[in-house]
Every structure is written in structure tokens, then in C-alpha cells.
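Predict the holo structure. Ligand: adenosine monophosphate.
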Amino acid sequence: MSNKSTNFKSFNRLENVLIIGNGGRENSLAWAIQKNKLVKKVYIIPGNAGSERIKKCERINIDINNKNTLVENLYFLKIDLVVIGPEIPLANGLGDFLRKKNFKVFGPGQDGARLEYSKSWAKEFMQDANIPTANFWKVNSLVDAKKVIYSSPSPLVVKADGLASGKGVFIPNSKDECFRAAESIFDGKFGKAGNAVVLEEKIRGPEVSVFALCDGERYVILPSAQDHKRLNERDKGPNTGGMGAYSPAPLLTKDCLDKIIKRIIEPTINELIKKKIDYKGVIYFGLMITESGPKVIEYNCRFGDPECQTIMPLMDQNFVFLLEKCSMGNLTGDELIDTSHKVSGCVIAASEGYPKEYKTGFPIKIGEIDTSDCQIFDSGTSLSKNDELLTDGGRVLSIVCQDKNFDMVFEKVYKNLKKINYNGMYFRNDIGHQVRKNFSWEN
Ligand code: AMP
């Protein structure tokens, strides 16, 4: 990363920005965007209770599927830039629709979102572009799945082809378990998302997330991040949407990043261009650093959560210009992001029972917390009639801090977590264990 600071401007009106989504990711985007002096107002549809604590932020309650009402409201509010957070509206073509109505939109169209909403399409895309990824078989029936599973000499991973809220991936320990996973998908566990199944060679290595902001041709890379997907400490237990993260990831050395750029990021963008996909948004590269080099595990067409909450505090007030430039197709590609001075860490406070069933509606008490380089981005909260903050999701709060090193970061995060309390609060104590020099597990 460079030591210079970002030195680019917008000459366009950028007073009113709209964010679509309701999680910690969208709150952290709103928080980073409002830092810019040109931005007067950040609207969020629908946001959550935490959005109301963010400066310049206002929630709007409109159904984004009611497109006429949506557009009328956006004209009325004189929205200068729309940022679409989650994958579902992107997969449904909201980006295309708003662009046709002449809005500047950060977020790919339906064609680009396919990188995420069809795993088999993404694998074929990588094959076409010669991008390193695990070998795979797309199967359309349990009979075909059975043939592949029982004839494969090596262990396989089973994935529902479509969007399954991060729950459609199984990592079985035996061929029978593998077969049962495929069976459950074809039985309709994920509805239409399971019409096809991708069977993938199981690969090994540490994982890292890289985000490239793309304007259709050029790109800018954000600081890398590593997240903790598993529910329990020592990275055990079921997969979740993410229980915490840290950024940047020291694992990603300059040499490794150079390889990723050359073998993965640039070929991805070139292939998008070749396929006439005008991708204006973020491409999330979920990577595994294997013995034979970095390989793509998955693409997402939006920011990861909680990586986004972790990275946003490292951005300066020019961040919104990057999003705007992507939306307009005029990145120069050499915009600089200075993150040399700080590192960031995030721990998710979840609801007991998550990622399975959990209860909501418990009052959240937040005591006096350390606010210097610390943020709380609400992931799933609501307000009661008396304006009391309540739990309203599996993941409830994202507690994020920055400092000179990861030990200092996580000391602050965990100190703040002690000041937060609600019925059934659950969080991992070992987030960032790989990068905390002073950390050791008890017993
Ligand atoms: P995905 O939703 O595709 O990112 O998968 C969720 C998690 O499953 C990843 O973060 C990996 O830990 C694991 N995973 C996915 N694909 C593979 C693979 N081919 N080999 C090993 N682990 C995998």
C-alpha cells in the first residue's frame, strides 16, 4: 500500500447518496460515505435502528420491489448516487433498472451479479479465462451426483448452484455424507437455488478476501481482509455469515498480491469485458492460498459482511469518490488508498442459537464504551415503541476498532464488548487469533 493519500475529486453533485440494504455492511458504508463534506445526506432503504445513529443518515421505508414508487422517491430526493449493498436486488436487476432511469449506480447489473448467483456459471467463467480454481462438476440430478461422488478419488465439497444466504456449501467428511448433502439440495432445501449442484474438489489453505472496485474496465483494490466463518472458537462449528474479521491480512504479502492481480483479478476483468459485461461495482474474490498458489473459492458481487465493517474505517473521506467514479466508468486505476497507519478488527455479537433458530426482541444495553477509533455498526437491531434498542437478527452488532497493531485493536474491541449486554449475547473471544501476538487460548 502506498503512503500517499487519495488525491482525487468529484466535479459532480454528490449531495444525496442512497444505500440499499439493512445490515452492518450498509451501516458501515453509510458511515464511510458521510465523512465526505460534499455529502449532505445519506438515505438508507430500509436500514436498521443503527442507521439512525449515523451522522447525516435517514432511513426510508419503501419497498424496493415497488419500482415506480422507488423511482419517484429517488427523483424527489434528488439522489446523486445509489449504492446497492446486498446480492438479491443485484441479482434481480435493480442496478440495470436504475441505470436505465439515469441514476448513477454502484453495483453490477444482473449479468455481472451472475458471478455470485450461479456458482456453476462462475466456475465456467473461470474455466474460460483460465483462472485458478478447484476442479468441478455441475450436476442436474441426484443420479449424476452419485456417479461423480462415488467415482471421485479425492474428497469433494457440495454447493447449491444459486443464492442460499451463505448456507449452500457443505464440506462432508465421507462419500456418504457428500451424497446426503447433494440429496438435501435436490430435495429442495434451498428451493430453486438447488436446481443444480456444483461438486468441487476440496482444496486446502488459508483463506483471504480481496475486494476490487471496478468501473467496467479499470479497478482499485481495497485493503485485504480475513474473516472467521465458523461459529465457534478455534474456527470450529457450523458456517455462519461471519463472526468477525480483520484487515489488512498479513498473509497477503506483496508477492502474493501480485500473483493474485496477474492470475485472478486482471483475467476476471478482462473476461467480463470479453463477455460484454459492463461491471460497475465491487468484485469480492474469496481466495484460498494453496500450495500451488492462490485459487478462487467464490466470487461475490457485493461487499462481504463483516469484512466491509472492518475495512470501511480504514477509508478516508474520498471513499465515496471511488464509488462514484466506478458508477460513471471513469476510474483512472491509479487512485491510491492509504492504509499504512492503521489496522482494523471486528467482532460480531450474535444471538444465541444463530445460525439456526434464535429469538429476537431482547433489549440491548450499551454502557460507556471507548469511542476513539471504535465503531458499533448495527447488523440486526430495531427500536421498540419507546425507542429502546432491541435485538432483531442472528447477527446483532458489529464491534469494530482500529489501532497500530492487532493486539491493541482486539483489546479495545473486547473491552467494549464487556460494556454491551443483551439476553443470549454470543461472540467468539478468539477473532484475529492468527494476528494477535499476545493471544493464546485458555487450556
Ligand atoms: P463459499 O460460500 O463458496 O465461499 O464457501 C464457504 C466456505 O466453504 C469457504 O469459505 C471455504 O472455507 C469452504 N469451501 C468452499 N469451497 C471449497 C473448496 N473447493 N475446497 C475447500 N473448502 C471450500
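The longest helix spans residues 254-274. Residues 1-5 have pLDDT under 50 and may be disordered.
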